[in-house]
Every structure is written in structure tokens, then in C-alpha cells.
# Entry
Amino acid sequence: MQHESVTARRLAWLRRLGERLRAAVSAGLRAESIERLSSVAGERGGDVIYRLDEHGEGALLALCDEWAREEPFLLVAEGLEEGQRIFPAGANADLLAFTLIVDPVDGTRGLMYGKRSAWALLGVAPPPRAGASAGANLTLADITLALQAELPTPRAALADTLWAMAGQGAHGETHDLRTGATTPLTLRPSAATTLAGGFASMVKFFPGIKTQTAALEEALFAALLGPPPADVAQVFDDQYISSGGQLYELMLGHDRFIADLRPLFATSGLAASLCAHPYDLCTELIAREAGVLVTDPWGRPLAAPLDTHSPVAWVGYANATLRDAIAPVLQRLLRERLGVAAEE
# Structure
């Protein structure tokens, strides 16, 4: 009962943080021009930081100061100079209650131009072992509580919040931004048994690996579905520049398959800094609790360290039937292109 009480309190803090981040980012979108929001503020904590990101960071640090009055913890987040910070300042690093990993604004580029929602991603894991940093002994597999809050465009009327505790299923709700009303949101991944006629994508946001990724994607779809017919769209592509947003699309049944293999191609023209990082996948627990199968490219659970720099490759399947059909073919093609050593 005591453990349940602690988890419930932490979930309440996550919900509060998600709401704060949504309010802060929305206020920034209303107050500043696209040119101002898209200006580069620097490079910190594993990524380029834009002015829009700073609105989220300010809200994050302010609420962490409040939360630290109740429990001391380690924050791992994009945007921090060292990638992590202890709250409250001066707390004993060997006596922390938990680790909090956060991406305050996942999908900055799409949101700052008003194209698409971004997401605030929040995950809670145990504290690091005494005498070690978080990245040295905790991984994405250690996250036991997660929440992601939609950061909507200024034209949006609705915004969703999703959360999960390990072993207790995933939950969601939709907020009406006009009235303040909240309604339950059902998370229901696609039950389709084929990619034909659905959305399925490999991440290819940036120049440098587009050719390799597209060739792999074409080979995968051809092996699974045969040559594309001339008069019917075989599979639809959707390049949502947000890992949290991609997980959301899988959970809502919009997408059937997504593969982000950027780290496997990083040596072919894309820097590791332009790959997904652990904070981008810190809410994959929610997707798994909703029934989505999230793995590394070789079918194993994600186990990247909780830091701000490790590149993460991942694959999401809407259901087990799709996973069983796609994974062996994908892995064979990867071995052919990258060599067996890539699996190690």
C-alpha cells in the first residue's frame, strides 16, 4: 500500500509537470514570432536547443524545485549543461529517491513552425546505485512510471495526455483547451495483420542516410507485400519528427509499423547527435503497456542507458502478428546490409 501511495504521488507530480510544460510552451508560441522561437539558443545536453525549448526548460526546473521539497531526486534531461542535475541542490547523491528523465519538448521543429504537436516526455526510474551516475547503471528498461503530454499547435482545440505504471496498463485522456473539460481516451493499437493500405515508416528525416534508409524500406515492403501495384498506394509514409509522437500514432492505431534505425547508419553520413536519445524514448513503457511491441532492431527490449547522448535505434509493431511477419525479414535485410557484427 505504501508503494502504491508513493507511485500515485509521483504520478500526480508528473501530471502537474505535463500541464505546466503545456501551459509554458503554449504561452511561448502565442507570445513570440516563428523567427524568434526557431532561433538557436545553444547546444546543451545532447541536442541543439531552440528558443522554444527554453520555455519548456524553465517550467521543468521550476517544478523540479517544488517536487524536491518532498523527495530528493536526479533529473536527466535534454538541455542541462551536464545532462543531469540533483534536486534539491546539495542533496546527498547516495540518498536519492528516484531518477526522473525528461524531454521537455520532443518535436520542437514541427511545433515551432505550427506544423504538428510536440510532446513532453517524462519517465521515472529507481535512483542510481550509490557512487554511480544514472547512465552507468540504469536503462530504459528500468522505467516504471511514464507520462507524455501533448504540446499542441496554437490552432488546436484538444490535447492528449497518456500515462502508464509498469504492469498496470496504459491510460489516456483528452483535454478540451477551450472549456477545460477532460474525457477518457482509449488507446487501441491497430489489429491489422498486413501493412498493405496502412501507415508504416522508416525514419529518414535528414540528408545523409535517406538513400540507404529508403532502399531498405523498399526492400522490406517488397519482401512482405510484393511489387507495388501501379494504380493503388501500397503503404503510406508519415515522417512525424517526434519519437513520442510516433509512439502516440502506434498507440492510437494510426500507424502499424515504425522503425528508427538512424544509429545503424550513423557512420554513413549522419552524426550520432542526430539520432534518437534515451530521453526521446523514455515513455516507451506507455506504448508497451498499451499493447505496442517496442524493441531494438534485433527484437530485444530497449536497454539504452539513462543519459542524454547515447543513440537509440528502435522498432515499433502495432501487434504480435505484424511483429512476427516483419521482424525476421527486417533483421535479415539488416544483416545483409550491415553485417552480422551490427547485431552484437
In short: The CA atoms of residues 107 and 118 lie 4 Å apart. Residues 2-184 form a domain with the Fructose-1,6-Bisphosphatase; Chain A, domain 1 fold (CATH 3.30.540.10).
